[in-house]
Amino acid sequence: MKDLEKMYAISGRINIKKGDILAGKYRYVKKLGMGGMGAVCLVSDIKTQEMLAMKYCLSEDHMDRFEREVLAWLQLGQHPNIVSAIYFDRINNKPTLFIEYVKGPTLKDVIKQSQTDREELYLEKVLDYAIQICRGMDHLHEKGIIHRDLNPKNIIIQEDDGFGIVKITDLGLSKLKVLPRKSKSTKMSGRHLAAKVELTETNQVLGTPQYMSPQQYTSSKEVNESTDIYAFGLILYEMISCGKFPFEANSTTGWLHAHLYRPPRHIKKQAAVKISLFNHKTRNELYELVMSCLAKTNRERPANFAAIEKQLESIYEQLCKKSYRRSKISASSLSKWEEENNKAVSLLKIGNEHAKAARDILNNIHKENPEFLYAHLNLLLLQLKTKSFTLEEFWLETNSLLQQTSDTSKVIEVMVGGALEKRAYMQKSLQILQQIQDIESFPNLARKKAKWLYLKGEFQQALKILEMLCEKDHATVEDFYDRVGAMIHCEILNDHCQIVPKADKFSLVIPQDLRQKSWDILRVGEKKCGVNDALERAKDIIAGGEVPKTPFWHEYGQLQGHKKPIKKIIITPNGLNVVSIGEDKFVKVWDVKHKKLICEFKIEHEITCLTTNLTQKQIALGLQSGDILLYNLQTKCLQKKVSAHKHPIVGLVFCNNESRLVSGDTNGEIKQWNLKELLKKKKIWQLKGEKPEKKYTVQTQLSTLGVNLSGSRIIAGGNDGSIYFVPQEGSAVKIDAHTSHIEKILISANERVAVSMCKLPPHNLILWDLRNNGKMHFSLENITSIAITGDAKYILVSTEEGFIDIWNTMKKIKLQRIEAYSNSISDIAVTADAKMAVSGAKNGAITLWANNYVWPIQLEQSYLKSSGI
């Protein structure tokens, strides 16, 4: 099964054999068939033991047509004479349709058998099959779908107590009409689905030549329901004649000529001996019906399959001397709600363009049956994914549902999974998961717990869970990928692995024994579950190749915070410490790795700004009084108090290898201090004040200050929204920039870009190209703070609603939005290497954010679907 091997293999060929696990969800049984566009194999659902036919697309070139086939199948719903679609999914990123498995021969097989056994197809059976085909095709047309490839190979005869149940299948060449006929069924029919016009170009021939209508050969624009009626006429003729055909040809060109120009041979010369009806010279109703179906033009054929069915039932009653009776009710074990829910989930899997149709279906289910849990959870999840709900609103709704239902595992799965997808609410999620005693019995919950522990940096605990999951039949390709990632991170923490970062890429230096172990785990994973793009990336990393840095920001943990709103927050360049100031007047220093408080002290004065000196392990605080306080983090004591300014300090930055300190006040005075000289003097506080090393004056009221690492460039922000570039010598250069007073100015560590912000749009965020003297404006709503990475490629923007947006400055696009808190974020900071960030909120909360570009993991929460036939 080379086609299946290509779909699920990542290197070389894997021998797919009976019993092998595909994607951690399905057990392979056997191949059922293969065509030019797709293949079908029989699988069993590991969890439910249901037998399913799995149809997948073989070629990227046919992906659009496969999507159209899926839409057509989903639109049909369930009908006793059509093979039902159960759901659409992406297995290892490959589009796959799961359909009802029908055991039985095709009508082609039955017709072939009748050539040697005339009892195989006698009149009553022929009429029974024909009526069932009409019923299935009428349903197809009622839903606005034209089959375009109706032939005996695409009709399966399912065994039952009678002649068998006809099942029409293979909608690969079907055509979705723009306006389906009005459905006679419930209002939750497939009419919601977004119909697509045909993909074929005019005069492009599609179908099985032997069964194609003249219109399929001449013009696709003329192909309508009548095309299927023509094919039905050929099938009915073939059944009556036990395999003989009204035309003879041996090539596509020959069939074209026959269908367009030759009259069909008289059926009485072809009919089976047992069908004595055709032995008479006179014409009869069945003969007339067959011939009318085979008319060359659309208008000469019967109007629709409903009319043909009615006529056939009349013929059946006349010839068989009894009324035709067969139930029209589908025998599927899926309820109406399960079917509709699966339809909605499948639409969402196909693409975002179908989100509205899916939402309508889920809303209707919830309205008519509020107790149906899957649809309710899927609706909440859809609202979260489409940003109709904030994470807080989603959490409240699902938590409320958790109190009302007995199926708590599914609610927790969606609740925690939704938070995981948004990469926030770590503590709340882990608290719920920790309460589950036998989590091994709930693999999806165990998987989510492992992912949260992974994001939290507790790789050893995550690894234990992932090792357990990989041993199970229900293991997924993600489990093996995450397991290797957790193992690699454990070794990085133990200094057995080394990250080698570059500008846009990185590589890993991995010991040979760890590399071999990683390879072995991934090989088991690909053999057991298949592959996805992440495994390909994992191979490159393990091989030591250079891999692009893919931003992967997520919550890393929370700190105890303050009792009142956070005023200012910073993170040291190495990402090891965070310093926060709250309106409670406490200054707190935190250990990031262990997420604990190192020290705190209360300052009775009003603090306006702060900065850190990693070399000297100091923090400097600027006060409303104009003083500067220097604290030693090792001794946790005040080291120096400098009477620096006569006006409130608005900016404070260590620079020049942290040997200098630059401060600025509201009156426009900017001073540079020699830190060594300041600390020489034994007295903590000099009453006369200290003399700065340098002094600059800007003729305006300042609101903030930005200084580069070398101290050679100073940019000041004014209350009037102007930007002032302050040179080492001479007067400051004023540039009109913002419409209100500037809140923050930052200069990237590579000194190529500066960013300034004010709170009011328009142009409340400006990027300044310091090398080329250019600028770029952004107009963003409700922003509260900004941070910039050292290479100036990314800007983090916080908002009053509690969001953090990560922007790519090169591509000018928003890469990611993280929901941090339900209330406003007051300040945000990021390390120069873009590995760690911290945010402080107005409720006093402090959250750590990590960027794990080394081994990002899959966090998408899947919608819930029902299985079963």
UniProtKB/TrEMBL annotation:
<dbReference type="InterPro" id="IPR000719">
    <property type="entry name" value="Prot_kinase_dom"/>
</dbReference>
<dbReference type="InterPro" id="IPR036322">
    <property type="entry name" value="WD40_repeat_dom_sf"/>
</dbReference>
<protein>
    <submittedName>
        <fullName>Serine/threonine protein kinase</fullName>
    </submittedName>
</protein>
<feature type="repeat" description="WD">
    <location>
        <begin position="559"/>
        <end position="600"/>
    </location>
</feature>
<dbReference type="InterPro" id="IPR011009">
    <property type="entry name" value="Kinase-like_dom_sf"/>
</dbReference>
<keyword id="KW-0808">Transferase</keyword>
<feature type="binding site">
    <location>
        <position position="55"/>
    </location>
    <ligand>
        <name>ATP</name>
    </ligand>
</feature>
<dbReference type="InterPro" id="IPR053235">
    <property type="entry name" value="Ser_Thr_kinase"/>
</dbReference>
<keyword id="KW-0547">Nucleotide-binding</keyword>
<dbReference type="InterPro" id="IPR019775">
    <property type="entry name" value="WD40_repeat_CS"/>
</dbReference>
<keyword id="KW-0853">WD repeat</keyword>
<dbReference type="InterPro" id="IPR015943">
    <property type="entry name" value="WD40/YVTN_repeat-like_dom_sf"/>
</dbReference>
<keyword id="KW-0723">Serine/threonine-protein kinase</keyword>
<feature type="repeat" description="WD">
    <location>
        <begin position="642"/>
        <end position="676"/>
    </location>
</feature>
<keyword id="KW-0418">Kinase</keyword>
<dbReference type="GO" id="GO:0004674">
    <property type="term" value="F:protein serine/threonine kinase activity"/>
</dbReference>
<dbReference type="InterPro" id="IPR001680">
    <property type="entry name" value="WD40_rpt"/>
</dbReference>
<dbReference type="GO" id="GO:0005737">
    <property type="term" value="C:cytoplasm"/>
</dbReference>
<dbReference type="Pfam" id="PF00400">
    <property type="entry name" value="WD40"/>
</dbReference>
<dbReference type="Pfam" id="PF00069">
    <property type="entry name" value="Pkinase"/>
</dbReference>
<keyword id="KW-0067">ATP-binding</keyword>
<keyword id="KW-0677">Repeat</keyword>
<dbReference type="InterPro" id="IPR017441">
    <property type="entry name" value="Protein_kinase_ATP_BS"/>
</dbReference>
<dbReference type="GO" id="GO:0006974">
    <property type="term" value="P:DNA damage response"/>
</dbReference>
<feature type="domain" description="Protein kinase">
    <location>
        <begin position="26"/>
        <end position="316"/>
    </location>
</feature>
<dbReference type="GO" id="GO:0005524">
    <property type="term" value="F:ATP binding"/>
</dbReference>
<feature type="repeat" description="WD">
    <location>
        <begin position="818"/>
        <end position="849"/>
    </location>
</feature>
